[in-house]
Amino acid sequence: MIPTEILDVLGAKKVLRQLKEAGTIPAGKKETIIDISGNKVIAMGYGQCSDKNAVVEFLVDGTTYSTTAEEAYNMGIDDANPVMPFVTKYDPIDDIYALMWTPVGGQYVRERFQVNITPTVAATYVVIVYYVDL
Fold it and tell me: What pTM, to 2 d.p., does this model score?
């Protein structure tokens, strides 16, 4: 979580907010799932998708990081870390593939935070983001 000292310095309201979206995306269609603007601190993001090869993009103030559950799993990124999304579930029997992002101290966002998903096959998803307004 975000240390209280950091929230005090940033003048945050100290109210952890949750944004949850779920649905279905057609194959090959890039869809913006989360789009948050303004001063925020992202505490945690979780995404689950039925397509292990769906490209998940995280955009933070113009910087983009993208991966797939398959790619992260094959690279062994399946342990909590303070830098990048990691695999929390890889279940080919039930087609459940999940990524989590827990940036150490939170990820400061000045302008915009966005999560996009582009599946290779029609896919269902659930995305949850926890953040604090500044």
Answer: 0.85
